[in-house]
């Protein structure tokens, strides 16, 4: 007895499957049949786009912005080429202006190994509230806007910098006054110390989440500086021998909203951490050596 033909998957299911495919497979799926071509071009498939597995050219990116990326795009991930020259650079102010025009709902922009030395910060689309830079090359004062240029309309809430080597104490000092609306700040493998913490505590008063890893030069003085962040709820720190456990306890006492403290780096005895947890039951304390 012949098997009954299975009914085709509904469009809603296929749209979810297509949205999970890598870019190249998503484009190939459009060649299967007319139905799949229509589904592959649906706006729902292009809400979150990850181009980072591919080193695309600026010409390809222009084509995507003009003909593929919909106005409903929310997340865009890209990978460039560090220390690139001329047309090899992935981004330009003109391209970002086109992205701002065609994708007004873009709120998360994630860049990896992208040369931003010739792309002013004010070129970032104003709709972006989350900016993630991984191993990107930016100038020391990238977040500072020239007084001759109208101030950017960016309203960043989340900033993640990983391996952005120009972000040092001086870089944070220059950037902090321009990032006062931040609620989440992540600094990984950036060379910062006490001075950076002072300016974070002075200007970024709205922070709810702060993560700093590999802070080899951070001392008690720097850690005390963030006692002004009264809205802070989560604090993740890699601490080394220059910071004492007493300073950590003092910080817990003055940050009433802190409910999660994650410590790394320096080895603390489990018994000591258990006693601290007993004294601060409102805060979940974890430790990874």
Relevant terms:
alpha/beta; F-box_dom; globular; 10-stranded parallel beta sheet; Leucine-rich repeat, LRR (right-handed beta-alpha superhelix)
If strands are numbered along the chain, what order do they take across the biggest sheet?
1-2-3-4-5-6-7-8-9-10
Average pLDDT rating: 86
Radius of gyration: 23 Å
CATH topology descriptor of the domain at 154-289 = Leucine-rich repeat, LRR (right-handed beta-alpha superhelix)
Q: How many strands appear in the DSSP assignment?
A: 10
Q: Major β-sheet, in short?
A: 10 strands, parallel
CATH superfamily of the domain at 154-289: Ribonuclease Inhibitor
Spell the H/E element sequence: HHHEHEHEEEHEHEHEHEHE
Brief overview, please?
The protein is α/β, with parallel strands linked by helices and 289 residues long. The chain is 30% helix and 17% strand. InterPro entries: F-box-like_dom_sf, F-box_dom, Leu-rich_rpt_Cys-con_subtyp, LRR_dom_sf.
Describe the protein.
Helix 6 (169-175) links the parallel strand 5 and strand 6 (184-188). Among the domains are: 12-45, no CATH class; 154-289, Alpha-Beta Horseshoe (Leucine-rich repeat, LRR (right-handed beta-alpha superhelix)). The chain has 289 residues and is α/β, with parallel strands linked by helices. A ten-stranded parallel beta sheet has the order 1-2-3-4-5-6-7-8-9-10, with helices on one face. The chain has ten helices and ten strands.
What topology emerges from the helices and strands here?
Blueprint: H1 11-20, H2 23-29, H3 34-40, E1 48-50, H4 58-67, E2 75-79, H5 93-102, E3 108-112, E4 130-134, E5 158-162, H6 169-175, E6 184-188, H7 194-203, E7 209-212, H8 220-224, E8 234-239, H9 245-254, E9 260-265, H10 270-279, E10 284-288
Parallel strand pairs: 1-2, 2-3, 3-4, 4-5, 5-6, 6-7, 7-8, 8-9, 9-10
Helix pairs in contact: 4-5, 6-7
Pfam families: F-box-like
InterPro entries: F-box-like_dom_sf, F-box_dom, Leu-rich_rpt_Cys-con_subtyp, LRR_dom_sf
Protein name: F-box/LRR-repeat protein 12 isoform X2
């Amino acid at each position: 007895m012949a098997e009954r033909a299975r009914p085709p998957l509904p469009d809603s299911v296929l749209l979810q499957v297509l949205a999970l495919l890598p870019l190249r497979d998503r484009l190939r799926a459009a060649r299967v049949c007319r139905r799949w071509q229509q589904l592959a071009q649906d706006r729902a498939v292009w809400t979150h786009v990850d181009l980072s597995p591919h080193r695309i050219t600026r010409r390809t990116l222009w084509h995507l912005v003009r003909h593929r990326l919909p106005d409903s795009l929310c997340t865009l991930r890209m990978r460039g080429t560090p220390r690139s020259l001329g047309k090899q650079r992935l981004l330009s102010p003109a391209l970002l202006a086109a992205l701002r025009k065609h994708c007004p709902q873009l709120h998360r922009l994630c860049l990896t190994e992208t040369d931003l030395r010739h792309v002013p910060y004010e070129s970032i689309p104003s709709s972006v509230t989350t900016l993630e830079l991984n191993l990107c090359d930016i100038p020391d004062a990238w977040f500072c806007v020239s007084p001759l240029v109208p101030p950017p309309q960016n309203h960043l809430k989340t900033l993640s910098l990983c391996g952005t080597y120009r972000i040092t104490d001086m870089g944070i000092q220059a950037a902090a006054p321009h990032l006062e609306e931040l609620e989440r700040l992540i600094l990984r493998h950036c060379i910062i110390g006490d001075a950076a913490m002072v300016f974070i505590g002075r200007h970024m008063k709205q922070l709810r989440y702060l993560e700093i890893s590999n802070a080899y030069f951070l001392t008690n003085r720097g850690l005390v500086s963030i006692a002004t962040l009264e809205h802070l709820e989560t604090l993740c720190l890699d601490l080394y021998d220059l910071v004492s456990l007493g300073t950590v306890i003092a910080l817990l006492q003055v940050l009433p909203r802190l409910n999660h403290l994650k410590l790394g780096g320096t080895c603390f005895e489990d018994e000591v951490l258990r006693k601290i947890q007993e004294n601060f039951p409102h805060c979940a304390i974890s430790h990874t050596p």
